[in-house]
Amino acid sequence: MVVCLIAATADDIGWTCDEVYYFNSSELIITWTSALFKALPHGNAGAILSASITDQYWLWDMPHNPHPPLYKIISALTLVLFKQYLGEFTAYRLSSALLCAVLMFVLFRILQKRYGTAAGVCGGLSLLFMPRFFGHAHIAATEIPLTTFWFLACCAFWRGLTQRSGIILLGILWGCAIATKFTGLLLPAPLILWALLYKERRGLSNLVIALPLALLIALLVNPGWWHDPIGKIINFVQISLSRETSIRIPTFFLGKTYSFSPPWTYAWVMTAITVPVTTVFAFILGLLTLYRDTANRRFNNLMFINCLFPLLITMLPNAPVHDGTRQFFYLFPFMAYFSGAGFHFLAERMMAAMKIKKVLIPAALAIFTLYPAYQTMRIHPYELCYYNELVGGVRGAYALGMETTYWYDVVNGKFLKILNRDIPQGAAVSMWVGNQAYFEFLQDKGKIRKDIKFITPDIIVTITNKGADFKFSPETPQYLILLSRQGTFNELYWNIYYKNRPLYSLKLEDIPLISLYRWSDIKLL
Questions:
Q1: Tens of pLDDT along 40-67?
Q2: pLDDT (tens digit per residue) in 95-150
Q3: What is the DSSP letter of 434?
Q4: What count of Cα atoms within 13 Å lies in the side-chain half-sphere of residue 270?
Q5: Does residue 159 lie in a domain region?
Q6: Cα angle at 94 between 438 and 89, to 5 degrees?
Q7: Which residues have a Cβ under 8 Å from the Cβ of 237 and sit 6 or more positions away?
Q8: Which member of 25, 242, 254, 359 has the greatest number of CB atoms within 10 A?
Q9: Which domain holds residue 453?
Q10: Given CA atoms 177, 182, 185, 186 in this order, what sign does their dihedral have?
Q11: Domain for residue 463, yes or no?
Q12: How far apart are CA 516 and CA 458, in angstroms?
């Protein structure tokens, strides 16, 4: 049912700029794999397995496609299997929907085992209907795969304390996390902290045993590392640790632009204001189980440490934290676990109160699940722009100086219809945030008319007492697409944003998400 819901709405959310590169990478993986299987029966696979060919197909465009390939492999599989039934965009994104369903099922079963079915339902639906989580469940990127592998690996770690199968599962899932994103290398850190806290030597030894299997899995699914694996893994780690110099992504937070790393409070504030208030309340109630529930205390502390860890990592100096909640996204299932436990705690208190009838417990469950579902339905398909009532929703967050949007996911069918209808034939269009390849990809896929010319010119602005004079090199655009990612704005784009009326603006709660301007109409006052 979860998969069907997400698949049915998969194309509502606009294609993100990262997915463009991931999709192209997946197509290369499909081509390479197909060629390999055709060559193997004839014994002439040597050229396909050579360093030059594997690098070309598996390490394609690393500046825009830097992560290990497992999530792209999974998306390639769903693309191949379901393209003819669902279309290529939905089929490609189906990978995240399937992983989301697995994650929700495991979360439900864990809560059901400890706190009952109602708690399991509350926890599972609390996770699904965190609007930003629901939005990411539609997007074929790293967030849902990493989050799923991380949560399942923690569960496998717990299982490994009593069953050997848990150690094998831990190694496999840890390897899958590493093969998805650099962050997966950090997975043992909260597990080690928990093992030290409880003096659990078996937990530490299980991690040592699982490490070779994890590294083997990460290597096997990445043919790009097969040639010179040590050198390429070292290079991968070095690049991941030096993103301040290699990939500087700015963030707009509380009215100020941070060129790379926002204040240590960023992740804490964003978590509090991007999750529905009922889920936040249930989560706080769930934290009471850390000292009241002695039977589950060890496991609950394991969940809590993993909930806390992503937030603590973002507090490190020069930590790359940007794009809303993406860099600490994997805390959400642990937060949902405590939301389910919190509902159980509340239900017990209601049962203990003589004047409160049992019938109110289903009513409370409905509030904790239907309200987040309503919030998600209300804001769809702009889930990645969601802010809760603690800051007054999207409009209140905008007034506080929070970033409106960031990932081009607002380029949905509604905005594309405007482009295709209102841009004259053969017109040149520039965009900010600059991403010419993104719009050309949508043209190749038939989403945008092919006669529109997308360009990325250099702009020289001369300010005079009569206004501003624009000079473009090498070509002058006729239109501008301006994404409301305020962290990337310079003085020119702030002026355009505040002082000029667009031809069209896609808005949410009367706040512009993305706008279309005619360059000749733009004036700087």
A1: 888 888 899 999 999 999 999 988 889 9
A2: 999 999 999 999 999 999 999 999 999 999 999 999 999 999 999 999 999 999 99
A3: -
A4: 31
A5: yes
A6: 35
A7: 182, 185
A8: 25
A9: 413-521
A10: negative
A11: yes
A12: 19
